[in-house]
Amino acid sequence: MSLLLSMAWRNIWRSPWRSGVVVGAMALGVWAGIFMMGLAQGVNDTRTANALDDYIGHAQITDSSFIENQEVQAIIADPQAWTAALDAHPEVESWSERLLITAVMQSGTASAPVQVLAVDPEREAQVFKAPRRMHEGAFDSTGITLGLKLAEQLGAGLGDRVVLTFQDLRGEIHSSLYQVSGIYDGISNLVEGIQVYVPIAELAPELLGTADSLSQPMVAHQIHFRVRNLDSLDQTVGELTAAVANAGSSVLRTWRGISPDLRYVDEVLAQSLLLFMAVILFAMAFGILNTMLMAILERTRELGMLMAIGMTRRKVFRLVVLETLLLSFAGLPVGLLLGHLTIAVTSRTGISLTGVEKGMAELGLQSTIYPVPVPEYFLPVALLVAVLGLLSSLYPARKALKLNPIESMRVL
Amino acid sequence: MTNQALLSVQNVVKTYESSAGPVQAVCGVSLELQRGAFAALVGPSGCGKTTLLNAIGGLDSVTSGRIWIDGTEITGLSDRKVIEFRLHRIGFVFQAFNLVPVLNAWENVAFVMELQGLGIKARRDRAYELLSAVGLSGKEIQRPAQLSGGQQQRVAVARALASRPSLVLADEPTANLDSKSTDKLLDIMRELNQKEGTTFLFSTHDPRVINRAEVLFPLEDGRLQA
Question: Which one of A51, A269, B12, B15 has the largest count of C-beta atoms within 10 Å of its C-beta?
Fold first, then answer.
């Protein structure tokens, strides 16, 4: 090891308490920053996972015109070709076809706009979790299933009758009577308040006309599916697209395409977290700068002597920069390790926020947050520490650079 | 400058600006020092010894006059060149030892060689050899705080010699030492002067140093006395 490096390291510990406080503060700052990053990442991952489980799914097949205007006529041209490909692909865990219409729901006391999902309950429950979280009744083919929030809003309970009014395929207004057979408790209040489920076998004839329904073994606006491994989703989507030779105007989109806002949140979050860490480290940099200025002031005589015996100003500058960087970096591994360990523990136990459960539900979140390890941020954080350490070394190093050997050695 | 002279000082003047007006600390001093000499600038406090010694060592500029060391006019060198010159050609021993407290004895000696760019083995060997020469074998890994004042000054002498300089400038090196340590230090410096042929120039008013010096340059009010 270079004597200069060794000297820089030992110089830091000439005032153990002072340096210890700075190193401790840096470790604490990095720990807090990393933990907050893990927590925020955990919140976002949970929110994304809940959205995928509740209403987006991993990927979706739909007609391109349905994406643009959600017109009821825009059904998938050849859904059997897709379902055959989905059944054949080993990575596809489950799939569910849907008819999707907007309607007005009337109970005995109130009405509300709703989004009607006509599904095969068994298949739907294999792709989405919302119908599996039943508050009352069952998610089956016997009637309509509402979200808890909507049920409260309409004053509708299990066994009550509600009327759905919607436009059918021929453009005529159609009303159907359903009995409430189930009330689900979704994670997101937004979804709970608007999405209702009816059996596709019941809605399809009403929407298309009996003759059309009989002539087609399957009719769907969307086919959602789940994959076994979300990391290989893009590859699976590519293979499925290739497998369906005559897709027509049908398109296959992953969750990122269906809900770009989730993807943007990911990107914005990554930048925000680094910005957050930069703010913490920026505050730390002032402490480091102050410590180094004090160190230079205390060692004026010594630095003058070093220059007198032949140490160039450039090397004095380098020594001060080196000391500042070492001081900045000394707390980094401790902070990273503590942050990582804290996340490792809380990612198993979770952090309960039961006091703000309702607010969390509005955001589509459960009240227990599970932070996730964020090793991908370690290098950027280290680079931030290096940059801020370097910046905070410039002023003390410049001070040292301006010392005059003779005058410095006169300092007592 | 004569052919054999290692140091030649010609009509050097150093004037300081003070609140009371300009103060002439060195007034037209000229002297020559032969290679291998064991010499001293002597005189009472404030006579300009340290000012002249600093000017010779290139630590301070001169108001007028010229100084040559080993054929190089240091008064004409840039700041960077003077530092380089000092590193390779001049060794310093200060009154207050001025060792680096975080480095042990051999590292303090080796530090100058590190600045010169010598490899670790060469540095270590030379440092141990010099510490042995100044009677500090076995103290190599002790830090300055673990050494007595006399021992620290001997480390400083070893450090001054580490770069194999032509000239060692020692500013009141015995001022903070007791008699025993002073004698020991002077014995060592004299031995190194004779053995390695290094030229020593002291600034002192210590009679023990004056008695051991071969050549004396008496100064009074900034002027060299005949």
Answer: B12
Distance CA A411, CA A299 (A): 9
Q: How far apart are CA B30 and CA B131, in angstroms?
A: 35
In the stretch 2-61 of chain A, residues with CB closer than 8 A to chain B read: 2-4, 6-7, 10-11, 14
ipTM for the complex? 0.89
Instruction: Give the closest residue to B151 by CA, choosing from B111, B112, B103, B184.
Output: B184
pLDDT digits (tens, 9 = 90+) for A124-166: 888 987 666 788 888 887 889 999 999 999 999 999 999 999 9
Q: Judge contact between A196 and A149, C-beta under 8 A.
A: no
Q: What residues in A contact B91, CB-CB < 8 Å?
A: 309
What CATH number is given to the structural domain containing B162?
A: 3.40.50.300
Which residue spans within chain B are E strands per DSSP? 5-18, 21-34, 38-42, 64-69, 72-73, 90-93, 167-171, 199-204, 215-220, 223-224
A223-264 pLDDT per residue, tens: 999 999 988 899 999 999 888 877 678 889 999 888 888 878
Q: Please, what is the angle between helix A332-349 and helix A16-51, to 10°? A: 40
Residue B48, classed as helix, strand or coil, is: coil
Tokens of A183: 């009330």
Residues of chain A positioned with their CB less than 8 A from the CB of B83: 307, 310-313
Measure in Å the smallest separation between the Cα of B149 and chain A Cα atoms: 17
Please say whether the dihedral angle defined by the alpha carbons of residues B142, B144, B149 and B150, taken in this order, is positive or negative: positive
Cα–Cα distance for residue pair A383/A328, rounded to 1 Å: 11
Task: Tell me if residue B214 falls in helix, strand or coil.
Answer: coil
Distance from CA of B224 to the nearest CA of A (A): 23
Is the Cβ pair B112, A310 closer than 8 Å? Answer: yes
Domain ranges, residue B200: 5-224
The whole-angstrom distance between B92's CA and the closest CA on chain A is 6
Domain coordinates of chain A in residue numbers?
3-51+263-410, 78-247
